[in-house]
Amino acid sequence: MSTFYCEYCGTKFPSVINLTSAPCYRHPEGPNKGKHKLYEGSLKSNYTCKYCGQTQSSIANLTAAPCHRHPKGTHKGHHAPSL
Ligand SMILES: [Zn+2]
Ligand SMILES: [Zn+2]
After folding, report:
1. Which one of the ligands is nearest to 53 CA?
2. Is residue 38 situated within a structural domain?
């Protein structure tokens, strides 16, 4: 069985339909302001933030923290996994 992850919050879903039909509490526009977004990168043992290079063992852990090098400004958004 496949597992799909949201790029914003790291929540796991059994299908892309489930993922893209549910609101994301860590959406960049604000909590639940949009749907989860499919993470299209490969699954890894470590995920690196594409803005600052910080590494965490899961997408959920990585995106939980604000990023000091976020393009919208320091701590204006969360870390985002590179693909
Ligand atoms: Zn999400
Ligand atoms: Zn970062």
Report:
1. 2
2. yes
Q: Does 83 map to a domain?
A: no
SS3 string, 13-33, reads ECCHHHHHHCECCCCCCCCCC
From CA 29, how far away is CA 68, in angstroms rounded? 18
Ligand 1 geometric centre to CA of 54 (Å): 19
pTM of the model: 0.91
Distance, CA 74 to ligand 1 centroid (Å)? 21
pLDDT, tens digit, 9 for 90 and up, residues 40-83: 999 999 999 999 999 999 999 999 999 999 999 999 999 999 99
Give residue 39's Cα distance to chain centre.
7
- The number of folded domains in the chain is 1
**25 Cα–ligand 1 center, Å:** 6
